C-alpha cells in the first residue's frame, strides 16, 4: 500500500492503522485498504494463521489497487 502514497516521512515509525488512514486519505478505496490492513494485523499480531484464503483475499485487494493505479496513470 505504501507504494501508492506519495510524500511519506518516516515510514517505519507508523502503525498499520496510521498507514490505513493515510492510504484512504490519499484516495485509495477504503474496502481494499481495510482488507489488507486487517489481514496483516490478524496474521502479524494476532493468532490467525497465514492461509491460502487470506493470501487470495489480500492479493485480490492489491490487484484492485494496481488496477486503480493503472487507470489513474493511464
Summarize the structure.
The chain has 74 residues and is an all-alpha fold. The protein is built from 3 helices and no strands.
Features:
mainly alpha, 74 residues
Describe the structure.
- The protein is mainly alpha-helical and 74 residues long.
- The chain has a domain at 31-74.
- Helices cover 64% and strands 0% of the residues.
- The chain is built from three helices and no strands.
- It has helices at residues 16-25, 30-44, 52-73.
- Helix 1 (16-25) packs antiparallel against helix 2 (30-44) and helix 2 (30-44) runs antiparallel to helix 3 (52-73).
- The longest helix has 22 residues, at 52-73.
- The radius of gyration is 13 Å and the shape is flat.
- The mean pLDDT is 87.
Amino acid at each position: 500500500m505504501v507504494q501508492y502514497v506519495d510524500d511519506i516521512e518516516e515510514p517505519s515509525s507508523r502503525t498499520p492503522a496510521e498507514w490505513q488512514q493515510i492510504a484512504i486519505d490519499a484516495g485509495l478505496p477504503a474496502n481494499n485498504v481495510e482488507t489488507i490492513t486487517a489481514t496483516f494485523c490478524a496474521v502479524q499480531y494476532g493468532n490467525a494463521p497465514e492461509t491460502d484464503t487470506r493470501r487470495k483475499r489480500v492479493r485480490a485487494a492489491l490487484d484492485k489497487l494496481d488496477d486503480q493505479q493503472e487507470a489513474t496513470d493511464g
